[in-house]
Design brief:
Length: about 150
Protein backbone atom coordinates (compact mmCIF):
# COMPACT_ATOMS: atom_id res chain seq x y z
CA UNK A 1 0.00 0.00 0.00
CA UNK A 2 2.77 2.40 0.92
CA UNK A 3 4.44 1.74 -2.45
CA UNK A 4 1.30 2.88 -4.32
CA UNK A 5 1.08 6.09 -2.27
CA UNK A 6 4.71 6.92 -3.12
CA UNK A 7 4.11 6.17 -6.82
CA UNK A 8 0.98 8.39 -6.76
CA UNK A 9 2.87 11.28 -5.15
CA UNK A 10 5.71 10.96 -7.69
CA UNK A 11 3.21 10.98 -10.59
CA UNK A 12 1.42 14.07 -9.21
CA UNK A 13 4.75 15.90 -8.82
CA UNK A 14 5.81 14.88 -12.33
CA UNK A 15 2.56 16.12 -13.90
CA UNK A 16 2.73 19.38 -11.89
CA UNK A 17 6.34 19.92 -13.01
CA UNK A 18 5.40 19.44 -16.67
CA UNK A 19 2.51 21.91 -16.35
CA UNK A 20 4.69 24.52 -14.68
CA UNK A 21 7.42 24.05 -17.32
CA UNK A 22 4.90 24.47 -20.16
CA UNK A 23 3.46 27.64 -18.66
CA UNK A 24 6.89 29.29 -18.83
CA UNK A 25 7.54 28.28 -22.44
CA UNK A 26 6.55 30.79 -25.15
CA UNK A 27 3.56 29.56 -27.06
CA UNK A 28 2.87 30.09 -30.75
CA UNK A 29 -0.04 32.43 -29.96
CA UNK A 30 2.05 34.94 -28.01
CA UNK A 31 3.17 38.04 -29.89
CA UNK A 32 6.90 38.40 -30.45
CA UNK A 33 8.44 41.68 -29.30
CA UNK A 34 9.64 43.90 -32.14
CA UNK A 35 11.84 46.98 -31.84
CA UNK A 36 12.93 49.31 -34.64
CA UNK A 37 14.72 52.64 -34.49
CA UNK A 38 16.32 55.28 -36.66
CA UNK A 39 17.36 58.93 -36.30
CA UNK A 40 13.71 60.06 -36.44
CA UNK A 41 12.39 57.88 -33.61
CA UNK A 42 11.68 54.31 -32.59
CA UNK A 43 8.82 51.85 -32.26
CA UNK A 44 8.18 48.87 -30.05
CA UNK A 45 5.45 46.30 -30.45
CA UNK A 46 4.97 43.51 -27.96
CA UNK A 47 2.59 41.54 -25.83
CA UNK A 48 1.86 44.60 -23.67
CA UNK A 49 0.98 46.82 -26.66
CA UNK A 50 2.52 49.26 -29.10
CA UNK A 51 4.72 52.30 -28.54
CA UNK A 52 5.90 54.74 -31.21
CA UNK A 53 8.09 57.79 -30.62
CA UNK A 54 8.93 60.38 -33.27
CA UNK A 55 11.53 62.95 -32.24
CA UNK A 56 10.62 66.63 -32.60
CA UNK A 57 12.75 69.77 -32.66
CA UNK A 58 12.45 71.24 -29.13
CA UNK A 59 12.34 74.76 -30.59
CA UNK A 60 9.15 74.02 -32.55
CA UNK A 61 7.28 71.92 -29.96
CA UNK A 62 3.87 73.42 -29.10
CA UNK A 63 2.69 72.20 -25.70
CA UNK A 64 0.05 74.88 -25.29
CA UNK A 65 1.99 76.13 -22.25
CA UNK A 66 5.30 78.01 -22.24
CA UNK A 67 8.59 76.23 -21.81
CA UNK A 68 10.37 77.62 -18.78
CA UNK A 69 12.75 80.45 -19.86
CA UNK A 70 16.30 79.18 -19.98
CA UNK A 71 15.29 75.52 -19.86
CA UNK A 72 17.09 73.27 -22.34
CA UNK A 73 16.12 69.89 -23.76
CA UNK A 74 17.49 67.15 -21.53
CA UNK A 75 19.17 65.51 -24.57
CA UNK A 76 18.86 65.33 -28.37
CA UNK A 77 15.86 62.97 -28.34
CA UNK A 78 14.12 64.53 -25.32
CA UNK A 79 11.12 65.91 -27.20
CA UNK A 80 8.77 63.95 -29.39
CA UNK A 81 5.35 62.71 -30.29
CA UNK A 82 4.53 59.53 -28.41
CA UNK A 83 1.82 57.08 -29.46
CA UNK A 84 0.88 54.44 -26.89
CA UNK A 85 -1.72 51.94 -28.09
CA UNK A 86 -3.42 54.56 -30.27
CA UNK A 87 -3.29 57.47 -27.79
CA UNK A 88 -0.99 60.30 -28.85
CA UNK A 89 0.95 62.76 -26.71
CA UNK A 90 3.58 65.42 -27.24
CA UNK A 91 6.21 64.88 -24.55
CA UNK A 92 9.31 66.86 -23.67
CA UNK A 93 12.00 66.61 -21.01
CA UNK A 94 13.91 69.74 -20.07
CA UNK A 95 16.35 70.86 -17.39
CA UNK A 96 16.79 74.27 -15.78
CA UNK A 97 19.48 75.64 -13.49
CA UNK A 98 16.92 77.64 -11.45
CA UNK A 99 15.45 76.19 -8.26
CA UNK A 100 12.38 74.02 -8.34
CA UNK A 101 10.49 76.67 -6.33
CA UNK A 102 11.24 79.30 -9.01
CA UNK A 103 10.05 76.99 -11.80
CA UNK A 104 6.84 76.11 -9.95
CA UNK A 105 6.15 79.80 -9.23
CA UNK A 106 6.67 80.65 -12.90
CA UNK A 107 4.09 78.11 -14.06
CA UNK A 108 1.61 79.12 -11.36
CA UNK A 109 1.84 82.72 -12.64
CA UNK A 110 1.79 81.87 -16.35
CA UNK A 111 -1.01 79.28 -16.48
CA UNK A 112 -4.33 80.71 -15.43
CA UNK A 113 -6.57 78.07 -13.83
CA UNK A 114 -3.74 75.60 -13.27
CA UNK A 115 -4.21 72.82 -10.72
CA UNK A 116 -1.08 72.25 -8.62
CA UNK A 117 -0.33 69.18 -6.53
CA UNK A 118 2.63 67.14 -5.35
CA UNK A 119 3.67 63.53 -5.02
CA UNK A 120 6.18 62.39 -2.42
CA UNK A 121 8.41 59.41 -3.14
CA UNK A 122 10.72 59.05 -0.17
CA UNK A 123 12.79 62.21 -0.01
CA UNK A 124 11.91 63.16 -3.60
CA UNK A 125 8.92 65.50 -4.05
CA UNK A 126 7.49 66.02 -7.51
CA UNK A 127 5.19 68.94 -8.25
CA UNK A 128 2.51 68.24 -10.84
CA UNK A 129 0.77 71.11 -12.62
CA UNK A 130 -2.24 70.49 -14.84
CA UNK A 131 -3.20 73.23 -17.27
CA UNK A 132 -6.81 73.80 -18.42
CA UNK A 133 -5.84 72.43 -21.87
CA UNK A 134 -4.96 69.06 -20.15
CA UNK A 135 -1.20 69.59 -20.52
CA UNK A 136 0.65 68.21 -17.51
CA UNK A 137 3.95 69.51 -16.15
CA UNK A 138 6.05 67.44 -13.75
CA UNK A 139 8.75 69.39 -11.89
CA UNK A 140 11.38 67.72 -9.72
CA UNK A 141 14.99 68.10 -8.68
CA UNK A 142 17.64 65.70 -9.91
CA UNK A 143 21.40 66.03 -9.56
CA UNK A 144 21.10 69.70 -8.45
CA UNK A 145 19.15 70.58 -11.61
CA UNK A 146 15.46 71.14 -11.94
CA UNK A 147 13.83 68.58 -14.21
CA UNK A 148 10.73 69.61 -16.19
CA UNK A 149 8.65 67.04 -18.07
CA UNK A 150 5.74 68.38 -20.15
CA UNK A 151 3.06 66.08 -21.60
CA UNK A 152 0.27 67.33 -23.87
CA UNK A 153 -2.47 64.99 -25.12
CA UNK A 154 -2.96 65.20 -28.88
Amino acid sequence: MRKWIVIGIVLVLLVAGVLVYRSYQPSQSRQVDEFTSDEQGFSFSGEMGDLEVGYTDPATADFGVPIYPGAVAAHDEAVGEVNINGKSFLMGAYTASDTKANVVSYYEREIEGAIVGSIEEGEQVQTIIKAPNETGINISTKDSKTSIVIVKPL
